[in-house]
Design goal:
The complex is a heterodimer of chains A (81) and B (415). Chain A is mainly α and 81 residues long. Chain A has a single domain, classed as Orthogonal Bundle (Non-ribosomal Peptide Synthetase Peptidyl Carrier Protein, Chain A). Chain A has three helices and no strands. In chain A, helix 1 crosses helix 3. The longest helix of chain A has 13 residues. Chain A starts with a helix and ends with a helix. Chain B has two domains: 143 residues, Aspartate Aminotransferase, domain 1 (Alpha-Beta Complex); 234 residues, Type I PLP-dependent aspartate aminotransferase-like (Major domain) (Aspartate Aminotransferase, domain 2, 3-Layer(aba) Sandwich), CATH 3.40.640. Chain B has 16 helices and 14 strands. The longest helix of chain B is centred in the C-terminal third of the chain and has 20 residues. Chain B starts with a helix and ends with a helix. The chains are: A mainly alpha (81), B alpha/beta (415). Chains A and B meet through helix 2 of A and strand 6 of B.
Chain lengths: 81, 415
Amino acid sequence: MEEIRDVVLEYVIEEYLEDEDEEISYETPLISGGIVDSFSMVSLKRFLEAKYKISIPDEKASPEAFDTVNSITALVKEITS
Amino acid sequence: MSFNEKIRAMYVEQIEGIKDAGIFKQERLIHSAQAADIEVEFPTGSSLKKVINMCANNYLGLSSHPEVVKAAHDGLDTRGYGMSSVRFICGTQDIHKELERKVTEFLGTEDTILFPSCMDANAGVFEAILTDEDVMISDRLVHASIIDGIRLCSAMHDTFKHSNMSHLEKKLQLHADKRLKVVITDGVFSMDGDTAKLDEMVALCEKYDAMLFVDDSHATGFIGKTGRGTHEKCGVFGKIDIITTTFGKALGGASGGCVSGRKELVELCRQKARPYLFSNTIAPVVVSGVLKVLDILSESTERRDKLEKNTAYWRKGLTEAGFVLKDGDTPIVPVMLFNAKLSQNISNDLYDEGIYAIGFFFPVVAKGQARIRTQISAGHEIHHLDKALDAFIKIGKKYDILSKTKQEIIEMYGL
């Protein structure tokens, strides 16, 4: 099975990075680092819900939980487990 | 609680922080009417300086047009100064309805509602027509007033990359389950001067049953062959569901704005939009001026044609001189400098040469995208543009940026 964190990383690069030379890692701060604004977070949430057939409750979809690829992966794993 | 010294110190610190960050905004006092030639007091307290204005939204040169001024005088004489009421109590005159009819006709829509400004139109429209069952999908470079309106609305919000139609399509697919989908864009983007791909957006909206919203504030009156706006230029006149625009730029430049579009959406704004319900509408004197502007524009395309020629002349001159410009064909012509300090220095030097053009840098534009945004007007004559070109070239030589690439300018001055 595809690693969740690689799926998330690929989506974030495709969705949010405007500059092709920009590089991010699993631990790059996305929201607090200004890469993803809180508005744009919604597409990531909807993507994950569709991809993994889950529902992420609003209270769990916090800017903190969505701040790095690793934290997003942890959230998805918690909900799917 | 009184405004004690501790509170004052807190605010002083905040203001100092803005100054330290180099983003403190200062007003320059203009002692003349708005036009191509203006008299400016800057810095405050200094003697007046005659300069050529290269940064007004006075695209059609109508801000001080004698016929518009006369119409405003007549409106003042016959309809008075203020309304002292919101629209639905006793704040609607016959001329407000006349203006709504004329704007509807000009933009090729079904109905129009006036707002005190386009900022208010954008702040009020989404909340009035959408609920939490719906989604708003906006271009990532839309104007700040649209962002504010989106924040006030309970519908879900998502974005697509600037003018990227395949990304927009993915978003329309992602949100296919929503009750209503609204795609949101500027017609002409105010910082880059590029035009939205409205023809492609209309096709996508039709394919995915979405509505299309366009803020045409930097287009109404002069974009398209008869100046109706971006929808005319893109061949989709009559196909935009919601247009917002302003009377504070090309259409006389005083104030006021509107929502124009499908009549049911306009009616819902009349019933629910808070800036319309809880604020006076446009003053009669301004309404009278805008009515005259629309008459002038409906009679002849002379002014927008002159603007188009002036814009082509200006772009050609800057390009041949070796400046890096943003691509486009609108009267918004950004001269790219990339470095914030460089944009400020060049703006100051241009002012010394009698040219008034402002530097824009982060957070108004993205980091590393600093520029001087020049804006062309039908009020400019060729001698204005020639003088401005001479000044740009002189200052460009001083900083050795002529015929340099983006990369070379960045290597010289940093980001």
